[in-house]
Design goal:
By secondary structure, the protein is an alpha+beta fold. It contains two helices and three strands.
Length: 50
């Protein structure tokens, strides 16, 4: 499981982006209950940016 800091969550609250991602070097893409999308770099570039 990917852990993010309190500061990361605070920046998301401040910026209110349309989507929030944590990019990982590998693994599976999944959505967390707190609204973060965990996504390997390759998948992010192909699916999310393409």
């Amino acid at each position: 499981m990917v852990e993010v800091s309190k500061g990361f969550h605070q920046s998301i609250d401040d910026l209110k982006p349309d989507a929030s991602y944590v990019i990982t070097p590998g693994g599976e893409r999944y959505d967390r209950s707190d609204g973060l999308r965990i996504c390997p770099l390759e998948v992010f570039l192909e699916r999310e940016m393409g």
